[in-house]
Specification:
With about 425 residues, this protein is of the alpha+beta class. Helix content is about 35%, strand content about 35%. Among the domains are: about 40-60 and about 345-415, conserved putative lor/sdh protein from methanococcus maripaludis s2 fold; about 110-230; about 270-340, Elongation Factor Tu (Ef-tu), domain 3 (Beta Barrel), CATH 2.40.30.
């Protein structure tokens, strides 16, 4: 008779747990890495939120859009040559003016007092000149009278000397009488010579004084004319015919010398001034072509002048119309200009989009065959315009890429469309 023996239950030991559990844990870890790690670089996105564009080959021209402002081709600025207070306004901004027409008047009390002082100085010096001239004439008359008396005495002494010489030769007069007549004659001659020399020296001195007075009067007269011209400059007149487009002056307002008071636009034609980002300063030169449309008609512009000074990250250029100016344009009107930086050429074109802000043009999401996903793909871009990038390397005609913004995609390697 057989008896059943109870089986001894095997206990789970640490050794057995390690023996059978480690392989299971290894398989689970591998499965986790295969499943979850592969999904770490994949992102599911809504297809309606994407913009997908095709790469194609076509004509490409590099250009930049700029906004220009219409300005008169020539502008004349009004400046205060002399300082003063605004006393009268003859015209208002916007009025049409003719050359020489008064625009405003300034008053300057200091200038008026200066003119009064210089006028008084001129009258005084002019009177001094006239007094000196009259004195010279009187003195000349006195000298002429003195000279006449001396010459009369000389003639009498000469006649007496001749008579005494004749009588002395005939022994009719003594030698003392003859010597006395001779000495009187010689003295009269010396006196006449001295009188002539004195007369010439005195007249030369008086003439020099009068010449100095005349020079002083002339200088004061010229200075007075300059000051009076300053007084005339207090009336600001239009230097040219045109439109007074601005006037910075109010009644009672004080203006300093050289201060700008306004401007006059010469309405012979117009130009366009446009600010451009400093990034393009090395590529902008005279002669570049620009186009714009107005009322459905296309017009051409050419860069005439480049102002290299950069302010707030921008520099300015002046453009002139290449042909006939559009009718009806006005000063200050804005024009949207397409400024061409190069000629038209064949290129591989990629439409512009928000992806560039994230990638800098170094990579892009390339749509995979089937069109349900896109992978990160390196590219290299060249020139650009507001519509297209020039593809240098990394893409082929017909490739489809995601061009919308990548801001929400992080560093994902693959996008799956839903």
């Amino acid at each position: 008779m057989s008896m059943d023996r109870p089986l001894k239950k095997k206990r789970l030991t640490l050794r057995n747990a390690l023996r059978f559990g480690l392989p299971v844990l290894f398989v689970a870890a591998v499965a986790y890495l295969l499943v979850f790690q592969s999904h770490a670089t994949t992102l599911r996105v809504q297809e309606e939120h994407l913009t997908v564009a095709a790469v194609r080959r076509g004509p490409f021209q590099e250009f930049i859009p700029v906004i220009g402002s219409v300005q008169p081709i020539n502008t004349m600025y009004l400046n205060a040559e002399e300082g003063g207070r605004v006393e009268h306004l003859y015209l208002k901004a916007g009025a049409f003016v003719r050359a020489g027409e008064p625009i405003l008047k300034l008053t300057n009390t200091d200038l008026l007092l200066d003119i009064m002082y210089r006028e008084a100085e001129f009258f005084q010096q002019n009177n001094n000149l006239r007094t000196a001239q009259l004195s010279l004439e009187q003195y000349r008359f006195e000298l002429d009278q003195q000279l006449a008396d001396v010459e009369h005495e000389l003639e009498r002494a000469r006649r007496e000397y001749r008579n005494q010489s004749a009588l002395y030769g005939e022994k009719l007069v003594s030698k003392d009488t003859f010597d006395a007549a001779r000495e009187t004659f010689e003295y009269a001659e010396k006196k006449r010579a001295l009188t002539m020399e004195t007369r010439q020296r005195e007249l030369a001195f008086r003439d020099q004084q009068i010449a100095q007075l005349e020079e002083s009067v002339t200088r004061i007269r010229e200075n007075l004319a300059v000051v009076r011209q300053k007084l005339d400059n207090l009336v600001i007149r239009a230097p040219v015919t045109g439109q007074l487009t601005s006037l910075q002056a109010e009644l009672g307002q004080s203006k300093t010398p050289g201060e700008q008071l306004g401007q006059i636009d010469i309405l012979d034609g117009f130009k366009v001034r446009a600010p451009i980002d400093e990034h393009y300063i090395a590529r902008i030169g005279t002669g570049l072509r620009g186009t714009f449309e107005l009322a459905g008609v296309s017009y051409e512009l050419r860069v005439k002048q480049v102002f290299p000074e950069v302010r707030d990250g921008r520099f300015e250029v002046d453009l002139e119309f290449g042909g006939q100016e559009p009718g009806g344009i006005r000063r200050g009107q804005s024009l949207h200009i397409r400024l061409e930086l190069g000629d038209v050429g064949e290129a591989l074109l990629l439409p512009t989009g928000g992806f560039f802000q994230k990638t800098g043009g170094n990579w892009i999401y390339l749509v995979e065959p089937g069109g349900r996903s896109a992978v990160r793909h390196p590219i290299r871009l060249g020139r650009q315009n507001p519509e297209y990038y020039e593809v240098v390397d990394g893409l082929r005609p017909g490739d489809r890429v995601v061009t919308s913004s990548y801001d929400n995609y992080g560093d994902m390697d693959r996008l799956v469309f839903q």
